[in-house]
Amino acid sequence: MVEVLNAYPHAFPEVKALRSDLAKHAKPDTKSQERSPGLTSPVRTAPRPLRKRLAPKDRRRLIEDYLAGALQRDLARRYAIGLSSVKTILRDAGARKYAARS
Known about the structure:
54% of the residues lie in helices and 4% in strands. The chain contains six helices and two strands; from the N terminus they run H-H-E-E-H-H-H-H.
């Protein structure tokens, strides 16, 4: 690593100058987003609600597919949502493939 730093001794001031120039020209996006101190990229304040990520007809189809034998991870990929979102939809719908054990 020391050899690399010695080979490019003037690169770091140029990188700092480039970052400074970019920071001057970047327009802050204040619409429903906050910025953390020290970070220049926007950070979402809260995730989008699940009801906005998946339409009601897609929820019904997801539940039907699950009851027909589809795996939860495959449904997550197919509907482009997280695995935990699939589990939440199925739990809220009371969808179970198998009878509860006693």
